[in-house]
Amino acid sequence: MLYCAAPAAVITMMLLSVAILAEQKRGERFAVFLWIFALWDIGYYVELWATVRWPYSPTSPDVLFFIPVAWTSQVWFPILISILTVAVVLLTRH
After folding, report:
1. Over its length of 94 residues, how does the chain's per-residue pLDDT go in tens digits?
2. DSSP letter assigned to residue 58
3. What is the dihedral sign for C-alpha 21, 23, 24, 29?
4. Which neighbouring-strand residues pair with 82?
5. What pTM was computed for the model?
6. Is there a smaller number of Cβ atoms within 10 Å at the N or the C end of the chain?
7. Cis status of the peptide bond prior to 55, with omega within 30 of 0
8. Cα dihedral angle (26, 28, 33, 36), rounded to 10 degrees?
9. Is the preceding omega at residue 61 within 30 degrees of 0, hence cis?
10. Largest CA distance in the chain
11. What is the DSSP code (8-state) at residue 75?
12. What span, in angstroms and rounded, lies between the C-alpha atoms of 51 and 17?
């Protein structure tokens, strides 16, 4: 299980580092983190489709988290949340 969690932890730390370097205030850093995480998540699904042709459709099942139990949903849901996150961050930035 640790082997699977290590890449996710590294990616999260990289995204946090970018947010910390990009802004001075805590709220702005959080907004930048959400924005780049959402863009990364969308890019992740695009890369999966381009390399292994998965997901087959937006209704394909996906495992989102394993803690404390497996959380599953269709692929369209995390993509929708990421698109909405990008939109909210862009609309609320000064």
Report:
1. 445 667 778 888 999 999 999 999 999 999 999 999 999 999 999 999 999 999 999 999 999 887 788 899 999 999 999 999 999 999 998 6
2. T
3. negative
4. none
5. 0.84
6. C
7. yes
8. -170
9. no
10. 41
11. T
12. 28
Residue 1: the pLDDT is: 44
pLDDT of res. 89: 94
Count the neighbouring beta carbons within 10 Å of the beta carbon of residue 77: 14
Phi, psi of 81 (to 5 degrees): -60, -40
Written as six digits, the tokens of 11 are 């990616």
H-run or E-run covering 62: strand 61-65
Which distant-in-sequence residues (6+ apart) come within 8 Å of 78 by Cβ?
A: 41, 45, 62, 64
Residue found under tokens 């590294």: 10
Which residues, 6+ apart, have CB-to-CB distance to 39 below 8 Å? Answer: 82, 86
Provide the token pair at 93.
Answer: 């930035």
